Every structure is written in structure tokens, then in C-alpha cells.
Amino acid sequence: MGADDEFYVRYYSGHTGRYGHEFLEFEFRGDGMCRYANNSQYRNDSLIRKEMHLSPTMLKELKRIIEDSEIMKEDDNQWPRKNVVGRQELEIRFGNEHISFETAKLQSLGEVQESNDPDGLRAFYYLVQDLKCLIFSLISLHFKIKPI
Amino acid sequence: MTEHESTIDLNPAADEIIDDSMAVDDAPAVKRKGRGFASTAESRVSNKYDSYDRMDEDSTVQVSTNAQRSVEGWIVVVTGVHEEADEEAVTEKFAEYGEIKNLHLNLDRRTGYVKGYALIEYETYKEAKTAIDSANNTQFYEQTIHVDFTFVRPPEGSGRQPDRRDSRRRQRSASPGKRW
Fold this sequence. Notes:
By secondary structure, chain A is an alpha+beta fold.
């Protein structure tokens, strides 16, 4: 597999607080492997870890979603820095481009609009929601559990 | 002390491994961008835990493809779904091949229109396979849709052998800030 075909996506959102290290993280690999981990001490004290393998058709759709978001054109240098509330990370390797963005948790679209880079942050904000929506569907259909 | 160090170390053994040969994984031509590369944030999710839950092989169902069964049935993915298609139209088209147990027609969070894919659950392999064979590469809302199984069985060699499977990549998480 050449560099042009390299593909990897990882999203992390988490913080360390009263209930320890609470986070949600998932990744998609170019070979179709998809992993999900969610650790919330509050009410649900177990770590959820799920693994699936996606068909090429499903993987292709994921790539389309990422391409359409134009996230690879953005840069996180003007985005809010991680803080006590927590942080989000989005790492994507797509062909010869590799991004690893880090920012604060975004509670609302208002925060996005008021930031120094509303257009870029909006691309991030909506892509993250679309990716979460996809993986929650995959997990709930495959395992019949509510992932969060 | 970084934020990372203050959290629970999920893989203490990794800290003792120093392997600079793993430091650079990207080819020189790869363009990197983002603060995440400089941060000492945790390594890839797959490095952190020994084992993940996955669906067990269902030996009672003999199938000729590498499709993977889900807990209650077979999940079909439809791509190329027109943004103005609705659940009713998707249901009408795909109920033709079997009883739809579940349908996820997710929306684009920005536009509110259909994102472009649908996930459909059928109870039996036969129904799912019929849907795929019949509807793949057909027109729906004047767009060509692609229909396939959503999940496949893990490729050979990625079985339940967490220790062996993870040992190589675990070393990569050793040097902070050099996650790839």
C-alpha cells in the first residue's frame, strides 16, 4: 500500500476530573478495522470497548464524508486551546496529508462562531458530529447497545 | 508534569520501551499539520487496551462471502442516497427484499438533509444478500446507489490474540510525542 492510499482516523474527547479520566475515543483504520472506547465513571463504571471491521463500501463512504468536510484544508492554530473542561483531538491521515488537531471541548455552535477561526472550527465541529453519528449507528446496530 | 502523566497509565510496560526506530512513521512527503503532533496526548486508541469486544463467529450460518453477522441480523449499507430521500422512500424500496428490522438514515448535522448513507438491518442473510444483489448500482432519486454489507469478518491474522497482536504497536507508544 503506497502513501497515497494511507488512511487513518482517530477522534478523542475527554477530561480528567472528579470521576477520573473520562473519555470517548474511536478510530478507523484503512484496512477497515474500527475501534471504539468509552470510559465514564459516572453511573456506568465500566470501560466499553468495541471492535468491528467495515466493508470497503462503508469505508469509502467514511472517506467521502471526510473529503466533503474539507477538514484537511484547515489548521488548528487559531482554535481554542484545551483547558480544564477537557480537550478534543482529531487525527486524520489521508494519503499524503496528516493532520492532528487539538482544541477545547466545544459546547455550542456559539462558541464556534465567536472563535478566531469560525469557518475552520465549524468544519471540525460538524465533521465530529457526523463521525459520532456514524459510529453510534454502527455500534448500536452491530452490538445492540447504546454506546453512551 | 503534563496532563498525560497525571492520568492513569493504561499501559505501564510501554514506558520502559525506548525504540527510536519507531519515531518517524510518515514518509518524508507527508504533510503534517496541527498542534496534536506536539502534544504528549495519549497514543492511538488501539494501543491502549488489551482486548476489544467483537462479534463472535456464527458457525451456524454458512455464508460464502466474508460478511459479518451482527447481534440481531445483517446490516446493509446504502451509499449515494440523495439528500432529499426520506425514511419512507428508503423503507419502501428496501422492504421489497425482506422485513426491515432497523433503519438508520442519518442526517448531515450542518444542513439537516440526509448525509448520504443508510444502514438497514435484515434478520436473515438471505434478505440482506437479496437487497445487495438487487439494489446495488441501481437508480434511486436519480442517483446511483451502492449497496453492500456493512461489516466484514476480521481478516486472517487479526484474531483474538491481543498480546501478540498488540506487542509491536505497543512499542510505538513508548516515546512520547512520537506517536506515529
